[in-house]
Amino acid sequence: MNKGCTFYFVRHGQTYFNHYRKIQGWSNTPLTEEGAEDVYRSARGLADVKFDAVYTSDLSRTVQTASIILEENKHADELTIEMMPEFREVFFGSFEGEDVDKAWAAINKELKYPSVAEMYAQSSIPERMNATKKADPHNDAEDFLTFWTRIEEGLMKLISKHRDTGEKILVVAHGNTIRYLLNNLVAELENPQPLLNASVSVATYRDGAYHLEKYNEVRHFKDIE
Predict the structure, then answer these.
(1) Is 211 annotated in the active site?
(2) Closest CA to 219 of 52, 95, 42, 87
(3) For residue 104, what are the domain limits?
(4) What one-character DSSP code corresponds to residue 22?
(5) Is 12 a residue of the active site?
(6) Site: Transition state stabilizer. Where (predicted)?
(7) pTM over 0.85
(8) Which of 53, 104, 149, 209 is buried most, with the most CB atoms less than 10 Å from its CB?
């Protein structure tokens, strides 16, 4: 039987744009004090997990989060962070830095649902991403195909390197990146909820298939005793 490999996907801690409810995407803002503390709590709960490799996007909030996780980990002496732009968040084009509610109201004008709440309830992820590109006056926002091609290329690099090794791989990335990735790879995950900051989602890859073990998990958070 193949050993497969296991991915620990961790969303970064709360940033100032998260706190201010602004569209973040490729924009860089640091973790808030609360965000860093949540990462420390998550890291303490993962301290006994022996990771074999660590990857992040090339955005500062994921690198900051991964650094805290390694700081708290008991087996991380030989590990270094490898940044991969493939795992960036969705790019929202000229909506970057915009108020979340204003941005989605503008995007919903393309989809024409009675409200933003109904848009979220009734539209698919690809529909919303494609509408974001259409609504962007500069047409710079990523549509779903562009985004998916990018993150799939990143994942295939990891599969090529770690498949059938039995290794545990830490990937610190972004809420939409992790959620959309797992939504398309894991058959049993339907309409996944948005991810909490510093949450952990675990998926195994074996014999060409992905299996979800945990999603949006925060029960492992551990305070200082």
Answers:
(1) no
(2) 42
(3) 94-141
(4) B
(5) yes
(6) 174
(7) yes
(8) 104
